[in-house]
Amino acid sequence: MTGPIRVALVDDQPLVRMGLATLIESEPDLALAGEAADGREALALLRRTTPDVVLCDIRMPVMDGLALLAEVAADPALAAVRVVVLTTFELDEYVFEALRHGASGFLLKDAEPTAILDAVRVVADGGSLLAPSVTRRVIDHFGASRAARPHPRLGDLTEREVEILGWVTTGMSNAEIAAALVVSPDTVRTHVSRAMVKLQARDRAQLVVFAIESGLRRPPGR
Predict the structure, then answer these.
(1) C-alpha closest to that of 10 among 79, 81, 80, 75
(2) How confident is the model over 98-156, as pLDDT tens digits?
(3) In sequence order, what DSSP letters do the residues of 54-113 get, joined into one string?
(4) pTM score, two decimals?
(5) Which of the 8 DSSP states describes residue 142?
(6) Max alpha carbon distance in the chain (Å)?
(7) Mean pLDDT in the chain?
(8) Contact 86/55 with Cβ under 8 angstroms?
(9) Contact by Cβ (8 Å): 106, 84
(10) Residue 78: what are its φ and ψ, rounded to 5°?
(11) How many C-beta neighbours within 10 Å does residue 14 have?
(12) Is 162 left (phi over 0), alpha (psi -120 to 50) or beta?
């Protein structure tokens, strides 16, 4: 990426937006693309500025975060925009749905400033925010009660890619999965990349959602 990472802020609380704006503008590699107080304002902002990353509240008036995510996913012009959901609780009822709708991850509103800045950079670089402990709780809380609906392209994956896909749902990194399987991180990275291409997942967060919905919630013995 050339130039600063452009970040849009979407939250109905002015104090939250002000704090995040001050944080973003304090970093030389980040730039504030704009602010919005609800999803409708945000959609207009995103279409006007096409930021790299959006920090978005999930509960807002007029149009909430889920509706905004759906609009972003449906607009080809916004395909490169990455959305990080801001939530008050790790097990907010909307978290899993936000991931299903295309969010690249989520952050707690009381996260440390350094964690927020790191998250923006990770997502802008194509990564996702899926810490193992939080991912497992989200999967157990929201995924376990759902009937498996295998992805229509799941059959295109090799047996090894399906196995790796199960490991991805743990929230572990490629290096951690590689250590558990006694293979190289490059091998895991290759399988993950191929699975993403075959399932047409936009990032690792969406890959986890596809795996959960397909019934691959964790590898055997985990």
Answers:
(1) 81
(2) 877 888 888 888 888 998 998 899 888 877 776 555 666 666 665 555 667 788 888 89
(3) EEEESS-SSS-HHHHHHHHHH-GGGTT-EEEEEESSTT-TTHHHHHHTT--BEEETT--H
(4) 0.74
(5) I
(6) 50
(7) 85
(8) yes
(9) yes
(10) -110, 15
(11) 10
(12) alpha
